[in-house]
C-alpha cells in the first residue's frame, strides 16, 4: 500500500495508479492528492503500450462524445435567439480586443461553467477564471474577474504570505514559502496537436486583458501557476531546443483539428 506502507495492496486507483489496501487508505490518497479516482480517458498512451482494451476505450469515448454533441445540438437553448445573440456579442467584443474567444455547444462542461460577461457601460470583461496549482494538486475557480486586474493582484489571495487566506495559504504552502521571482504563470496554447502541448508564459505585472491578447481562449482562461525551481512537464513555447520561438497565433492548423481538441478537452 502506497498510503500506509503496512498492508498488502488490494486496489489500484484508475486515475493516478496508486496502490491502496483498504477503503480508508483510498480516501486518504484521494484527499492528499486531490484525486477523483476517475480514469483519464484522454491520457496519452504510446504505440508500444497500446492494446485492444485501449482501442475499445477510445471507441466508446468517441461514441460518448457523439451522443453528447447530438444532445447539445438538440438542446432548446442552443437555438434560442437570445443565447445566440449573447454569445455573438461576447465573441465580437473579444475579437475587438484581439482575443480569439471560442464557445462550445450547450451541454459541454466548460459551456455550463462559464460565467464570463462583458459590461457595456464600463467597456470591459469580467472573466470566469480557473487557477491551477500543480505542485499542490489544487485548483480554484474565480468569477467576475475584471480584465484590468493584474495577474499579481489576482494571485495575492492565494500565494501572498500576508494577504492570502490562512486555509488556502496552508494548502499552497510550497508557493507561499517560495520567492515571488520563482513563480511562473502559464497558459496552454489551444491550437496545437494533442501530442505537442505547449504553454505561453504570462506577465504577472500586466493586466489579464493584456496577457490574453493574441491568444485563443476556449470558453474561459485557465492559468497554471508553477515554480521554476521545481520540475514539471509543461513545456513553454520557445524553450524547447527542437523548435524555434514563434507566436502562437501564427501557427497553422486546420479548424477541424482545433475543434477535435476542444471536444476531447471539454468532454
UniProtKB/TrEMBL annotation:
Job description of the protein: Required for box C/D snoRNAs accumulation involved in snoRNA processing, snoRNA transport to the nucleolus and ribosome biogenesis.
Keyword Zinc: yes
GO cellular component labels: nucleus; pre-snoRNP complex
Ranges where the HIT-type domain occurs: 1-35
SUPFAM superfamilies: HIT/MYND zinc finger-like (SSF144232)
Record field: compositional bias (Low complexity): 242-258
Gene3D superfamilies xref list: 3.30.60.190
Quaternary structure note: Interacts with FBL, SNU13, NOP58, NUFIP1, RUVBL1, RUVBL2 and TAF9. Interacts (via HIT-type zinc finger) with the RUVBL1/RUVBL2 complex in the presence of ADP.
Name of the molecule in the record: Box C/D snoRNA protein 1
Region of interest: Disordered: 240-267
CDD domains: zf-HIT_BCD1 (cd23023)
GO biological process: box C/D snoRNP assembly; maturation of LSU-rRNA from tricistronic rRNA transcript (SSU-rRNA, 5.8S rRNA, LSU-rRNA); snoRNA localization
Domain of life: Eukaryota
Protein family: Belongs to the BCD1 family.
Designated gene of the protein: Znhit6
PROSITE patterns linked to this entry: ZF_HIT
One Pfam family here: BCD1
This protein's UniProt keywords: Isopeptide bond, Metal-binding, Phosphoprotein, Ribosome biogenesis, Ubl conjugation, Zinc, Zinc-finger
Gene Ontology molecular function: zinc ion binding
Amino acid at each position: 500500500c502506497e498510503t500506509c506502507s503496512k498492508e498488502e495492496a488490494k486496489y489500484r486507483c484508475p486515475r493516478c495508479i496508486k496502490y491502496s489496501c483498504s477503503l480508508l487508505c483510498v480516501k486518504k490518497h484521494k484527499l492528499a492528492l486531490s484525486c477523483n479516482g476517475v480514469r483519464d480517458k484522454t491520457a496519452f498512451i504510446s504505440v508500444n503500450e497500446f492494446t485492444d482494451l485501449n482501442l475499445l476505450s477510445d471507441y466508446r469515448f468517441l461514441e460518448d462524445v457523439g451522443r453528447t454533441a447530438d444532445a447539445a445540438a438538440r438542446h432548446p437553448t442552443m437555438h434560442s435567439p437570445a443565447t445566440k445573440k449573447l454569445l455573438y456579442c461576447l465573441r465580437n467584443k473579444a475579437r475587438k480586443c484581439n482575443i480569439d474567444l471560442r464557445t462550445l455547444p450547450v451541454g459541454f462542461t466548460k459551456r455550463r461553467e462559464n460565467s464570463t460577461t462583458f459590461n457595456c457601460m464600463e467597456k470591459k470583461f469580467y472573466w470566469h477564471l480557473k487557477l491551477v496549482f500543480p505542485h499542490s494538486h489544487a485548483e480554484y475557480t474565480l468569477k467576475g474577474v475584471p480584465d484590468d486586474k493584474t495577474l499579481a493582484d489576482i494571485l495575492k489571495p492565494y500565494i501572498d504570505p500576508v494577504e492570502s487566506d490562512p486555509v488556502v495559504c496552508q494548502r499552497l504552502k510550497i508557493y507561499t514559502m517560495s520567492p515571488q521571482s520563482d513563480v511562473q504563470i502559464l497558459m496552454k496554447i489551444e491550437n496545437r496537436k494533442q501530442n505537442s502541448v505547449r504553454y505561453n508564459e504570462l506577465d504577472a505585472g500586466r493586466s489579464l486583458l493584456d496577457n490574453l491578447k493574441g491568444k485563443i481562449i476556449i470558453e474561459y482562461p485557465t492559468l497554471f501557476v508553477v515554480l521554476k525551481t521545481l520540475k514539471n512537464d509543461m513545456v513553454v513555447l520557445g524553450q524547447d531546443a527542437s523548435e524555434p520561438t514563434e507566436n502562437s497565433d501564427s501557427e497553422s492548423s486546420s479548424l477541424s483539428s482545433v475543434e477535435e481538441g476542444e471536444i476531447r478537452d471539454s468532454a
